[in-house]
Amino acid sequence: MSNRDLFSLAGTGNPDGPLADRMRPQTLDDIIGQDHIVGPGRLLRRAIQADRLSSLILYGPPGVGKTSLARVIANTTRAHFESLNAVLSGIKDIREAIDRSDERRRLYGKRTILFVDEAHRWNKAQQDALLPWVENGAVILIGATTENPFFEVNRALVSRSRIFQLKPLKPEDLRKTAERALADTARGYGKWRVRFAEGALEHLVAVAGGDARSLLNAMELAIETSPASGAEGSSWPPPEGAAIQVSFEAAEESIQRRAVLYDRDGDYHFDTISAFIKSVRGSDPDAALYWLAKMVRAGEDPAFIFRRMIILAGEDVGLADPQAVPVVIACAQAFDRLGFPEGNFPLAQACLYLATAPKSNTAMAFFDALRTVEQEDHAVPKHLRDANRDGESFGHGEGYIYPHAYRDHWAAQQYLPSALRGKTFYTPSLSGYEGKIREDILRKREIQGAAILGDDPGTSDGGEYLTWSAAAKGREGWFKRLESGRSALLLQDRDRIFNQIPLARHDRVLIPASQDGLLLWECLRRVPEGLCAALVESAEARDALLRFAGAALSSLEEAEKPLVAALPGGRLPKSAEAEAWFHTSRFDYIITREPWRRGFGETPAETAFQRFAEDASALLEPGGGLAVLQSPPRLGERLSRVIREECGAPPSLWEKLQEAEERFFTGNPSLWWNWTGESLEAAFVQEGFTTRLVLVDQQEERLLSERDIGGWFNPNQSSWAGQIQDALGEDSFHSLRKLLSERIAQGPLRWRWKSLLLTGKK
User: Fold this and answer.
1) 105, 131, 165: which is the final residue of a domain?
2) Would you tell me how many other CB atoms lie within 10 Å of the CB of residue 45?
3) Cα separation of 432 and 363, whole Å?
4) Does some domain include residue 187?
5) Least crowded by CB within 10 Å, which of 295, 467, 555, 668?
6) Across all residues in the chain, what is the average pLDDT?
7) Rounded to an integer, what distance in angstroms lies between the CA atom of residue 177 and that of residue 205?
8) Is residue 677 part of a domain?
C-alpha cells in the first residue's frame, strides 16, 4: 500500500476503526477549534486553499488535530501526498520517499508533500538526511510534533519551515466534537438514540482537558458498553433506532483521571517551571502552589525546584527582603533531612515565603556593570590602589579617605574610574527593606556627586551650535535634528496605538489610511500567522508603498505578504469589498493613524465619523477592537502662542490674535475643522462600542519656510487668513506676518498640539 493510501480513508473514516479515527475532519470547515491558524482569512488557510504550501511544522499537545489537519491537506492539495511516522521509519524510508518524489517531479512535474508524524522522534542523522531535499524543494515538509520544535527539531529544518502551534481545544469545542459524533449517522452514533445522564457528558469534556482523541475514545467506550433498549445481550451494534442511556458512573469509568502532562526534560518541564517562577515573581501564592503541586505530582526533582527558588530569591526578591535567600536555603536543608512526604512542608513554606515577599530586581544592576567592563576597561584610580606594595614608590593609595575616621563611617570620595564619574548602575527600589535604605543611598550619592564634580569642573564642548547662514550650513544641521525628532514622534504615535491593542500572532488587522506604512510594517511583525490588510488613498500610493518595502517583502512567501487596496476618503470598505480584496469580511482589530488628515471633502465630520463607525461594527468580530489616533484642527498649535512665546510679540497683538483664533476654531460648529473628540466618540458609542478617549500632548521642533507663511497669510487661499485679517486689521496682520518671518529665519521653533486616541471594543 502506498504512503498516500495511509490517508485514503481520511474522507470517510475507517468504518472498523476507533471513533476518534472515523470522526477525523474531511475539509477545513470540519475542523473544530484552531481558528487562530485555519479560520477564515488566516495565513495557513489561505495557503491551503491556494495550494501554495511551503514547509511547515505543526506543534501542539496530543489530540488537538495535527494529524487531522495533515489529512485535510492531503484531501485538498493537488500535490502528491506521502506519509512517514518517525517512530517506525528510518533513513532508508526517507531515501525511498525522496526517490519517488524526484521521479514524480522529473517525469510529471508534480510536487510532493511529505508528512512526518512524531517528527521529534527522528535523531539528528535522520533529520539531516531530509534537509537537502527540503532545501532544494524536492519535497514540501509537514512535520507534526508534541515537542517544542525549536529544541527538538534540527535548527536548519526549523529555519526553512513555518511553525504553527495548535492549542488544546476549549470545552465548547470539545462539546461540539461530541455532539457531532452523536449526530453523524455514517461515522458516529447518529443511527441510535444516545442519551447521557445529567453531568455525564460534561464530565467527559472536563476530564479530557482539551484532548479530542481522549474525549472520543471515552465516549466510544461509554456508549458501546452501555445497555441498549430492545437489544438482547451486550453485543455491538444494537438495532438501529435503539435507545442507549449512558450513566454518570459509566462515563466516570470510561475516562479515568488524566495523567499530568509532564516530561522531565521536554517542553512541559520547562513551561511548568517557567509558570511557577513567573507566578512567584508576580506575588500570586495560589498560582505558585498550583504549579508547585503539578511539578511534585509529576515527580520533578525537589533539588531542581529549590535551586530555582534560590535563584529567584536573589534575582527577584533581592534586598527588598535580605532574609529570602537564608530562608529558602534553610527550607532546602530541612527537606534533605525529611524527604517526602513531610518534606512537602518546607517546600511549600519556601514557595509561599517568596510569593508573599516584597520584590526587587535591583541585583540585575550587576549585569549593567559587567557590560560596561566588557566595553571599556579602566585603570584603578591611584588613591584606591594597594598601598602596602607600591605606596612608597608610586604613591599608590595616596589621597584615600578612610571612612571610619568620619561621622557615620562615611565620607564623600570618588570610587569609580575618572572616565565613569557619575555613572549609575544601582537604583534602589521602594520595596521592603530596600525602600528603607533608598533615601540614605540616594542622599549619599548626591553628596558624592557634588564633591567629585567640585574637584574638577571640567570643560564643555558647548554642545551643538546651530546658526543660519546663506550657505545653509546651519539649516542642514537643523534638518538632521528635526528629522530625528520627527522619527521619534512617529514612533511614539505607533507605540501609543499598539500599546492599546493586545495583538496575537494570528489576528486579522485592517489598517485604513496606511499611506506611510508606519502601522503596517509593525503589524506585519506582530501577526505573522494572521492577516495585515491595508487601505491607501490611491493605486499610485499603493504602488509607492509596496515599492518602498520591496526588499523586505521579497523574502516573504506570497501568503505572508500584506494585502493592500486603494480606497480614498478615510473610509472603510463594505463587507463585500473586504471579502473581494482581503478574502475575509471579518477582522479582529482596526487600527489607524490620522485617517482624516485630508479633511472630509463635502461630507460633514459627524457624518464621516458615523459611516466609519457603522462600517467598523460590520467588519469587526464580536469582541474585536479598534484604535484611532487623530489630531483635530481645533486642538492644533495657535499662532497666538507662537508669537507670544517664540517671537516676543506685544500683548496688544497676541491677545487680539488669541481672541480671533478662538472664534475661528470654535465659532461655527458646522465647519469641518471645528469637530470635537466628543463628536468622534459619540459615533462609536451609538454603534454599541465601549470606548475610551485619551488626550495626547504632542510637540516637536518645526522648521517653517516662507512658503508656509505665504500660504497661511494669503486670504485668497486660507479661510484662517481672511478671518484673522478682518479681526486684526491690515497693519496688525502684516506686523504678525513680519514677526513670524523674522523668527523662522533664526531656526526651528517649538510646535505644540494635541491628538485624540480613541479605543473601542465591540
Assistant:
1) 165
2) 21
3) 15
4) yes
5) 555
6) 81
7) 10
8) no
Count the Cβ atoms, other than its own, within 10 Å of residue 351.
Answer: 24
Helices (H), 35-170: 35-38, 43-49, 66-76, 91-108, 124-135, 149-152, 155-159
Listed residues 359, 378, 408: the one ending a domain: 359
Residue 89, domain CATH: 3.40.50.300
Return the DSSP state at 660: H
Residue 446: give its domain's CATH number: 1.10.3710.10
Task: State whether 429 and 388 are in the same domain.
Answer: yes
Do residues 658 and 572 share a domain? no
134 part of a folded domain: yes
The pLDDT of residue 410: 67
User: Whole-angstrom Cα distance, residue 146 to residue 693?
Assistant: 44
Q: How far apart are CA 279 and CA 658, in angstroms?
A: 56
Question: What is the residue-wise DSSP string for 433-466?
Answer: HHHHHHHHHHHHHHHHHHHHHHH-----------
Q: What was the pLDDT predicted at 196?
A: 92
442 and 545 belong to one structural domain? no
Q: Rounded distance, CA 32 to CA 191, Å?
A: 22
Residues 9 and 49 in one domain: yes
Domain membership of residue 204 as a residue range: 171-254
* Inter-residue contact 700 to 486 (CB < 8 Å): yes
Task: Please tell me whether residue 711 adopts helix, strand or coil conformation.
Answer: helix
Quickly count: other Cβ atoms within 10 Å of residue 3's Cβ: 19
Same domain flag for 84 and 197? no
Domain total in the chain:
6
Q: What letter would DSSP give residue 565? A: E
Task: Provide the CATH number for the domain around residue 496.
Answer: 3.40.50.150
Q: Is 82 part of a structural domain of the chain?
A: yes
Residue 146 to residue 152: CA distance in whole angstroms: 10
pLDDT at 392: 47
| 622 and 577 housed in the same domain | yes
Separation between Cα atoms, residue 753 and residue 3, nearest integer Å: 67
Cβ atoms of residues 480 and 555 within 8 Å: no
pTM, 2 dp: 0.59
Instruction: Say what the alpha-carbon torsion angle 244, 246, 247, 252 is, to the nearest 10 degrees.
Output: 160
Asked whether the beta carbons of 400 and 438 are under 8 A apart, the reply is no
Instruction: Determine the Cα–Cα distance for residues 701 and 747; give it in Å rounded to an integer.
Output: 9
The residues near 457 (Cβ < 8 Å, ≥ 6 apart) are none
By CB neighbour count within 10 A (0-12 exposed, 13-18 middle, 19+ buried), where does 308 fall?
A: middle
Determine the number of helices (DSSP H) and then strands (DSSP E) in the chain.
32, 14
- 143 and 197 both lie in a single domain: no
**In angstroms, rounded to a whole number, what is the distance separating the alpha carbons of residues 367 and 200?**
56
* Positions of the chain with pLDDT lower than 70, given as ranges: 1-16, 230-234, 256-268, 388-399, 401, 405-408, 410-413, 418-419, 421-424, 439, 441-487, 547-555, 669-670
Decide if 127 contacts 149 (C-beta within 8 A).
no
pLDDT at position 12 is 44
Cell numbers given for 72: 485535510
Q: d(Cα 719, Cα 3) in Å, to the nearest integer?
A: 76
626 plus 517 within the same structural domain: yes
Q: Is the CA virtual torsion 452, 455, 461, 463 positive or negative?
A: positive
pLDDT at 471: 33
